[in-house]
Every structure is written in structure tokens, then in C-alpha cells.
Structures
1.
Amino acid sequence: MTVRPAGPPAPTSLATPGIAAATSGLTKVYGSGDTRVVALDQVDIAFREGEFTAIMGPSGCGKSTLLHCVAGLDTPTSGSVRIGSTELSTLNDRQLTRLRRDRVGFVFQAFNLLPTLTALENITLPMDIAGRAPDRRWLDRVVSMVGLADRLGHRPAQLSGGQQQRVAVARALAARPAIVFGDEPTGNLDSRSGAEVLGFLRDSVRELGQTVVMVTHDPVAAGYADRVVFLADGRPVDEMARPTPDRVLELMKHLGARAGDGGRPGDGARTGGLV
Ligand code: ADP
Ligand code: MG
């Protein structure tokens, strides 16, 4: 038991147990007047710890904006975003930078590796810049899971696309962040390389307890997740637990047909359009 020194009571933790990140009324508006776009419209969503969530939806529905706002890379117009117990709007620029560095990992479609560094140097680069010593045991597990033991001294140009993206995933995991985001991380890969990257992401969830949120348009990729959230017009309209590619495809057709029908996504009264 810890004994607290006398003084004001410690603030109650705002964290909801088991929730890695959550939004409340998250709204993002770009532009104004004729160019005004509501990219996110009052989004309430939570990502559970140790869960792999896929985000799907038509182009322009707000998937990237959602990821960027939750990761602290973009600022909401209104509403709140919380990573663990930290409400992002309470942070100044410096604190936000630190949060992005220490508590969030991001994998982009482009691998964004530094060409002059080896695979291992790329993985540890963010921590080297931050002057932070890696948690050696964690890093060893991440590196062994990446499956590149004999290529860690290679430069990115000497690696295949799938291997480069696995290095980028390992880099995102290296600092042991609270949550890892991927925006179409397999978008530039052939299906076999994509499967290697998706397998690695799933293993990081299963074996390391990592929390992962990934945008994808590919039902096969979504099949690696524990849960799929479907967005349309800046808000979640449906979700599926334990997805399989076939079930995801079926629901996509259904949602697409409903939207094309002139029906509002999420309008439970419409059930037509199932093929
Ligand atoms: P998705 O990733 O699902 O394709 P985005 O989140 O990129 O969608 O975009 C959602 C909407 O916001 C789109 O209509 C897009 O054109 C708009 N948008 C995104 N970023 C900007 C920006 N920086 N300036 C203006 N509009 C933007
Ligand atoms: Mg996008």
C-alpha cells in the first residue's frame, strides 16, 4: 500500500477501465461557407484495450480524419478525445507532442522509413530521437515477432514492400504505445505481403495485448480484426464482432445498397438491398 503525503486529494482517474481510447461528440469541420465539409459528425466511439478494430467505409466518409483526431495529429472542431485517462484538449502543444511520441503509434500507407538507416535503426529511431531507452524485453519480443532476424541490418531498399511495412509496424510498436493506428497499412502491398503485415498486427494484439485500430477498404484485411466499425458520412452506422471476409462483404453490399437507395445509413426501417 502506498502512503500519500498530506495535501489535496489525488484527482480521480478519468480512465474507463479497459478502454484504450474514446471519443465523445467528436466533430470535425473543414472549411467554411461553400467549401464547408463535416468530416466527422458527433462521433462516440471507444476502442477497448487489447482489441483489434478495423474501420471501413466509402472514400471520404471520415476514416482518416477519425484516426488523425484520435491520434492527436489533428484537432477536433468540437467534442472530446481521450487516450487512457488523458483528455487531449487539455494538453498544450508540448504535451501533445509527447503524447504522440510516447503513447501513440502510427502506420501509414507509405512505409516512411529512412533510407539511410538499417531496419533495426528505423525501428528504434523515435526512441533514439526522444533520448528514451527502449524497454529491452518488449523490444526483443517486437523484433522477434517481426520475423526479420536476418535482415535487421539491411536498409529499406534491400527489403521487400511487405518487409518494409513490417519494420514500420515494429517502429510503431517499439515504444509500447497505448494504441497503434494504421491508415490503410496494406494499401500498397500485394496480398501475400499484406497478409504478413496483418498477421503481425494481429499477433501484436493476441500475444502482446496491443490495441490496434486500422482503416481498410479490404474485407480480407478486416477479417483479421476482432471488430469492424462501418462509417458513412462522418459517423458510425454499423459494426460487426468477429468478422469474416464474407460477412464483411455482405454487410458492405447491404450498407451500399441502402445508401444508394436514398435511404439514410443506419435507418433500421430499410432492410432491402441484401443480395
Ligand atoms: P476517408 O479517409 O474516409 O477517405 P477523410 O477523413 O480523408 O476520408 O475525409 C473526410 C472528408 O473531409 C472528405 O470529404 C474530405 O474531402 C474532407 N477533408 C479531409 N481532409 C481535409 C482537409 N485537410 N481540408 C478540407 N477537407 C478535408
Ligand atoms: Mg483516408
Note: The two ends are 60 Å apart (CA to CA).
2.
Amino acid sequence: MTTMTMSTSPAPAARIQPGRAVEIADGVHWVGVLDPALRSFDIVLSTANGTTYNSYVVRGEKGVAVIDTVKEAFAPEFFKRLESVCSYDEITTIVINHLEPDHSGALPELMKRAPQAHVYLSSRAPMMFKALLKSTDVTPSAFTLVKTGSSLDLGGRTLAFYQTPFLHWPDTQCTYVPELALLFSGDVFGCHFCDNRLFNDKVGDFRFSFEYYYAHIMRPFRQHVLTGLELLEPLELQLIAPAHGPVLRQNPRHYVQRYRELAEGRLDDQVVGEKTLLIFYISAYGATRRMAEAIAQGAEEEEGVRVSLYDLEVGDVSPFIDLIETADGIAIGSPTINGDATKPVWDLLSSLHTIHVRGKLGAAFGSFGWSGEAVAMMEDRLKGLRLHLPFDGLRLKLVPTEEELAQCQELGRKLARHLTTPPDELFAEAA
Ligand code: FEO
């Protein structure tokens, strides 16, 4: 006798269909678009499998709200999907969490199609809003500015606003529906990952995209991430609906916790109670290296400063970015070659825009043969990044003498002392 067995494989995940909205919660639909062919975002981000521009519709007993729109080129698809869940004359409310064109591209057309809808923006958005509309034939109509604590009643569905500036532009905010514990988080908790199964428990493995997105979009605003988390962490969360990538319905809290881990920095507690000074150098014939070693020697004389020395000749600068993010000061040395600092130094300096370095202590140094431009160039870049450079850089001709190495030691001492001196005493010294 043969026994028949039934397959227990789970049903395949539903996929987004053209022109059809996807219900993500009771009365809430995803009406965004897929952009699977995108290979770079904002010019600088790689998007290996594209992205999505997520827009949502919330239906209440008293009104219908559209949360964010999509990139302009995708407007026809967006409107088709929107029309599958509401008519334009039902739309009472348009909430824009973030005015970057990937979310506001279809806004002018939506305002034309639903002229009665009232627009809600964050309190820091009006200038951008007007600038966005100035090249269109849409006149900025009445709009309401909201801030943390503002809310609006759609009838059984409340939209509560939380300002999260710089995540990722100054105007950004999140919108929360308390009845559903649903957070429309804008760019926050998003990622560039296009998968038409939509939900995080159905799409492919997007962990890399989530981390990559954080590193490039949020990490430069680390302090703002921490401030934003203070607002968002206390919320009950059943669902996070970001502006890019999967809708996070399985363990949404995990993504909030991951942001905190990333924003706090994994290296923070490695050097407790000490200031950190990182000295990077590259050297052709050993002169700039000897300068770096002398600066380190001088700095080490100061109690309470952990000094580290790194040779940039290793080529790959990426391991240093985490270190610099958590350091208190950096000094960078390069010889001048063909009137310029060397490529590894520029590789390092051009990577610093992805982290918060403003206000850190900085210095530059280097040996040169006849023109010696490198030190001033490095100083300009460090100042451009808003580091604080209280001491003139050191540039020494060819091989340093003992006297010149003593100057390097003195620079190290001054840098270390600056790190350990309380700000009010520094201010008194400068006065
Ligand atoms: Fe997805 Fe900052 O725009």
C-alpha cells in the first residue's frame, strides 16, 4: 500500500502587480514603484539591484492621506497604483516626510490632480517646498507646517509627526499612526533594495543593503541619528514603512536597535576615559615617517591620550574610517610629490565626508624637496571638513634635523595637551 503525502512547502510570496496597490495594514496601502534598473543613487551610492520609491495611502473615516510620492519619471505608474485604492477627490491630505526629488517628484502633479488636498510638511521644509514648485505651473497652495507633537485626525487613524532633521536632509520627518503602531519613516530604516515581494520576511537577503545605506546616507549625521532614535525608540512598533526598500513587518524593532548600534559606534568603549589621537603618514624616503614618529613621541608624554600611528602605504584606507569617527584628533603627514599630497592621503581625506568629523582636532605635516605644497593642501581639506586646526602645520625640507624633530615632538605635545585641556581653559588661553 502506498501512502500519499501532501506537500508542506509554504505558498510562494505574493508579488507586486502592475497597477495594483498592496495592503500593508488595515486601511493602509503601498502605492510606490519599483526601480530595478537603477545602478547608482545620488551619483555616489551603488545600487546593485535597484531601489524602490515607497509611497503609502492611509484611509480614515474622515479622510484619505497620501504619504510621500515617487521620483518624477515613475509618476505614471504611481498614479495608476494610487487610483486602484482611492479617487483623487477623496484625498484630503498629502504628507511629505522628505522633499528630496526621489520622494517629491510626483508631488506637483498630485497637487494638480487633488487640488483640495492639504499639504503637511515639516517646519524646516517651506523653502525647499517653494523651490521645488517654482519650475512647475503649480502655485504653492496653503500648507501646514508640523513639528514633533503635531498630529492630525483622519477619523480612526491619527497621523502624528516626529521631526528627524538631517535624516537625510534638514526637512526630514517621520509620521506615525498610533492605532496601528505603524511608522512611515522616510529615508530612516530604508535601503536601496528592489524586490517585488515587498515585505522583509519575503524578500531576499537585504542586510548588506541596509548597512550600506546606513553607512552612506545616515552615518554622516550620526548625532542626528541618536537624537532621532530618542524620539522613535519609545514608540510601539508593529510595522515600519520606509521610503525605500522592504516594508519591515517582521521584527521591526530589530532595525531600530541596529541603528542604535551603528550610531553609537562599535569602537567607542575600547578606549575608556582617554582621548585618542591618530597619526597617519606616508613616506617616500623615511623623512615624513620620522616626523610622524616624533609627533607621536611628543604626544605620548601627555597623560590621558592614547596615540596611534598608521602608515597609509597599506593602500586601503577603509579600515581607518571607523577609527577616525571615534577619535578625538587626527594628524596627517605626506611628502609633496609633483606639487601635491600623495594619493593614499587624498583617498583617506575624500572618505571622511561619510562620517562626522566636525570639531575634531586636526593637523598636517610633511617633508618636501623644493616646493612643499602638500601640507597647506591637507590643511585646507581638513578645514573644509570643519576640523579644528589650532596649530600651524609642519613642513620640513628633505631630511629632518634633530632640531626639526624636536619641533615635531613639540607639535605632538601641543596636540595632546589640547585634547586634555578642558574647553573653558582653552578659551581662557586664547583670550
Ligand atoms: Fe530617499 Fe533622501 O531621499
Note: Residues 98, 100, 102-103, 168-169, 187, 243-244 surround MU-OXO-diiron (CB under 6 Å).
